[in-house]
Amino acid sequence: MNLNNKTLVITGVSSGIGAELARLARFAGATVIGVDRNEPQLTLDGFFKADLGDPASIDALLGQLPSAVHGLCNVAGVPGTAPAELVGRVNYLGLRHLSQGLLGRMPAGSSIVNVASVLGAEWPLRLEQHKALAATEDFAAGQQWLEANAVDPRTCYQYFKEALIVWTFQQSQRWFRDHGVRLNCVAPGPVFTPILGDFVSMLGKSGWPAMPRAWCARRWPMKWRR
Ligand SMILES: NC(=O)c1ccc[n+]([C@@H]2O[C@H](COP(=O)([O-])OP(=O)(O)OC[C@H]3O[C@@H](n4cnc5c(N)ncnc54)[C@H](O)[C@@H]3O)[C@@H](O)[C@H]2O)c1
User: Does ligand 1 come within 6 angstroms of the Cβ of 36?
Assistant: First the structure.
């Protein structure tokens, strides 16, 4: 992979997946601008502290980021042990706000990658709700919709990862058609990062293996199953 002359903005850069991604991207030649609420522990080409659950903080960040960005990796996230309202702001509304704000600075051929989760796999069960939330125009409208359509705190993490997958589906065609910018999700299973303990508290000991297995059994063709 050659990322020479590419500028990437990576959120959640001060820990776990975001930190490792930043390290690998710099190794491949990218100029990496990190964003996080905490100071980074690795060398970057630039870093901005921001609260990605707060639209005012994201707007201030947008004022500092470079005028041309070739890649945005939306990695920052909080677990479902946090209050549901915070999970919605950081994992969904803020991610959307930052992506919408940066889109105009991304030349055709640029790419946005959102880190969802295998725990968002059940999005088809709540598709209409996620489409309605995705149709809200901005952070404030999304927050209003969520005030009127309360999310169960016990499954808020799954809910907002599902919502992220649906929003990505919906926006990706439009943004590619109008701007030539690709928008995709990745949906990791368990990764050994500092957040993993929160996932175990959130799901119980059997939660991680049970859910992906159920998902695999329903959607994967027989020949792919072990
Ligand atoms: N670790 C896993 O098993 C796993 C599995 C699937 C998906 N994910 C997703 O991957 C992403 C990264 O998770 P991770 O495992 O690296 O976790 P992590 O806790 O190691 O890193 C998350 C980073 O996001 C930052 N962050 C959180 N809230 C923020 C805010 N309001 N403003 C700015 N920065 C903020 C944190 O400071 C931290 O640096 C998350 O979106 C998570 O949901 C993780």
Answer: yes
Determine, yes or no, domain membership for 226. Answer: no
Give me the half-sphere count of Cα atoms (radius 13 Å) on the Cβ side of residue 16. Answer: 19
Range 46-54, long-range pairs (CB < 8 A, 24+ positions): 47/13, 52/11, 52/76, 52/90, 52/94, 52/95, 52/98, 53/78, 53/86, 53/89, 53/90, 53/93, 53/94, 54/89, 54/94
Please work out whether the CB of residue 195 comes within 6 Å of at least one atom of ligand 1.
yes
Query: Would residue 165 count as lying in a domain?
Result: yes
Q: Which pTM value belongs to this model?
A: 0.93
Q: What is the pLDDT of residues 175-218, one digit of tens each?
A: 999 999 999 999 999 999 998 888 888 887 666 544 554 444 44
pLDDT in tens, 89-107: 999 999 999 999 999 999 9
* Residue 92 known to be catalytic: no
Q: Distance, CA 188 to ligand 1 centroid (Å)?
A: 12
Is 212 a domain residue?
no
Question: How many domains is the chain partitioned into structurally?
Answer: 1
Is residue 125 in a domain? yes
Q: Is the pLDDT of residue 224 over 60?
A: no
Catalytic option among 47, 92, 139, 157: 157
Can you give the pLDDT at residue 203? 85
Question: Taking all residues of the chain, what is their mean pLDDT, rounded to a whole number?
Answer: 92
Q: Give the structural domain span for 41.
A: 7-193
Token output for 194: 């500092």
